[in-house]
Amino acid sequence: MTASPQVSAGDETELLAAFDAVIERHERIEPRDWMPERYRSTLVRQIAQHAHSEIIGMQPEGNWIARAPSLRRKAILLAKVQDEAGHGLYLYSACETLGVSRDELTRMLIEGRQKYSSIFNYPTLSYADVGTIGWLVDGAAICNQVPLCRTSYGPYGRAMIRVCKEESFHQRQGYELLATMMRGTDEQRAMVQESVDRFWWPALMMFGPPDADSPNTEQSMAWGIKRDTNDELRQKFVDMSVPQAKALGVTFPDPALVWDEDRGHHDFGQPDWDEFTQVVKGGGPCNAQRIAHRARAWDDGAWVREAATAFAQADA
Ligand SMILES: [Fe+2]
Ligand SMILES: [Fe+2]
């Protein structure tokens, strides 16, 4: 799976040439194949970060399950949050094929040695946030993840195909929720606008820092792990979201947002990158709360893991 110590330098050159040829042909690297150690560690970092984001992302929306305004809305939200748990499981499994156990991955998350998406460190203050997260946060996730269906590592790409189908559904349910509220009272419309105002900039941050400040992008693209740069994806998301906002009847809190005829794209302002850095470093509004909750859930589940292990051994 990885470069073993008995591989000689000559063998390694040959193995690397074979690996490069697979990448060049846009074919897939599978768990049984030799791969450079940095390719493996980059994938572990990226897939783990993605898996952690799915699992931590259950918290802000889970916050509204008990307070959803109707049985129908509760059922939709419950199913959506369960989907995110499923995404986390596919991705942890993909990561395990690279030789890291789920135990280790969870420990690294709880100890702050691996990251998750900055967006989930913002609170959900109103029920409209459930719709906004579906529309903008799952929408941004789709922009990020559709190209990953073609990523060079087989288990990751295959997991992403199913994840993306479900994310599209999440985006639509969020949009439908907001559209319903926009047809309601003035108070409901104001709730939607206030929620969109709070989530717009953090949603743009989901694509990561500008390309000039993203040291890993170039190598990740050369290896076919990443297919588009952060700025390309951010542009795509803005272009996609503007007509949807118009149809919905909401605005984005960016005075610089304007259609640029020459470029054929929207121009837009930059998020507050200092805020982004602070949130990524653990100083966001909910970082401590999210990790404390995850750690508690992990501890509470210890007896289940022990029982499952004992059962599997008794069965063997
Ligand atoms: Fe997801
Ligand atoms: Fe989702």
Please, could you describe this protein's structure?
- The chain is built from 13 helices and 2 strands; from the N terminus they run ααααααααααββααα.
- By secondary structure, the chain is mostly helical.
- The model has no long low-confidence stretch (mean pLDDT 94).
- A two-stranded antiparallel sheet has the order 1-2.
- It has one domain: Ferritin, core subunit, four-helix bundle (Ferritin, Up-down Bundle), CATH 1.20.1260.10.
- Bound molecules: fe (ii) ion (FE2) (2 copies).
- One fe (ii) ion (FE2) is lined by residues 84, 138, 167, 170.
Descriptive terms for the model:
globular; 66% helix; mainly alpha; single chain; two-stranded antiparallel ribbon; Ferritin; 13 helices; 2 strands; binds fe (ii) ion; Ring-1,2-phenylacetyl-CoA epoxidase subunit PaaA; 316 residues
CATH architecture: Up-down Bundle
What shape does the CA trace take?
Answer: globular
Strand percentage, roughly? under 5%
N-C termini distance: 27 Å
What about the largest sheet? Answer: 2 strands, antiparallel
The spatial strand order of the largest sheet comes to: 1-2
Number of separate domains: 1
Count of β-strands: 2
CATH class value: Mainly Alpha
Q: Tell me the structural class.
A: mainly alpha
